[in-house]
Amino acid sequence: MSISKLFQQELRQHYLFRRLPDKAFNNILQQSNLTSLKRNETLFEQGEEATRFFLVRSGQIMLFQTSPEGNEKVVDIIGPGQTFAEAVMFMEGNRYPVNARSTSNTELFYFDNIAFTEQLQKSNALCFAMMADMSTRLKGLLMEISELTIYNAKHRLISYLLGHINDLQDQPSVKLTATKSMIASRLSITPETFSRILSKLKKDNLISIEDETIILIQPEKLKEIIGESFVKRKTGCMS
In sequence order, what DSSP letters do the residues of 82-144 get, joined into one string? Predict the structure, then answer.
């Protein structure tokens, strides 16, 4: 078996694998492995045949599309513990709809689509687990589309900050794990507008900025600016 016992224990914590019988889990692992990418290394390109899906162990993957003019639009930023491209197994044509590239040195597990779907056909529990997760992600996507089409740049940025608070710290803060230009693209905001909004929030004493960490000095006031309807959601949209 390619994946070590230690890594198997890590995988068992993920919703896709925790309900699997040992035999089904072992069958999937026969076609799985851990691989690594250097910073800015391409994992797959849009239109490429989708034979695998992935789970990030460490590092970060950027999912993006490229316009005919060569401009990149960030679709999602995938961090440790998150899977991506699993829903492509059920898409007509089985082609990746986006490009994937590492933004830092990255380790990720890959899983064979055929081996996984064979186990899906045998496990109702696994099917329902995937359906529940995809439904949650779909709800997040619908909210995101609403924000992109209805709300202004300031609303989108504040909503992003409130949705990515580090819950392990006493002072609400957001660690920017991606570049500001990547996050701006993710929110459909120009980098200049992104920086301008942050500067204004800082001037109004709503946030402070320390290196790559944004501290939310007055989170309740930020909530008031956009209303209480923001959705705290995790990344992972291209699943």
Answer: -EESSGGGGSTT-B-SSEEEESSSEEEEEEEHHHHHHHHTT-HHHHHHHHHHHHHHHHHHHHH
